[in-house]
Amino acid sequence: MHHHGFLWSGPKERFDDEALRRPPHPDPPPAGSRPELVQRYREVAAGFAHAEIPPLETAYWLVKPRSLVCGTWGEAKEAAAWLSERLAEYAPRFTSVWDRESARPIALVNSAVVRLNSGADVSLGFYLERPSFLSIAVVTCSPNRSRPDLACPAK
Predict the structure, then answer these.
(1) In Å, what is the CA distance from 59 to each residue of 2, 6, 23, 28, 141?
(2) Does 155 have pLDDT greater than 80?
(3) DSSP string, 39-72
């Protein structure tokens, strides 16, 4: 078991566009469907795996391009250390005063170690100024507990 880190920061409007954040349905629209529905399905089917925005289900980071992997670690504590560094880096930009308090990141990182050691994924999100959004995820791999059918992006 190992862990991959992913980070995305960008406009909140882009993050809120859920169409490219969810995988396409396994079956295309039936014959005779409205052309705009067929076109939208094709866009999502072609774009989901390549879209840099975070997927709605954390495990689906594993289907994204390998170039989006920010790091790979064999130990949960190593992955949590990366998570801690990212939180420290972005904390001054968090819009929530509560998220900027020093105890909050410590609690999140400690919780992440426990979850990663159990084989679970960690996904955190924060609103930043302007308005922007930050998504930080650490995904357990080989296999992923919630989606064991997804291949490791490092292979």
Answers:
(1) 13, 11, 11, 22, 9
(2) no
(3) HHHHHHHHHGGG--SPPSSGGGGGGS-GGG--EE
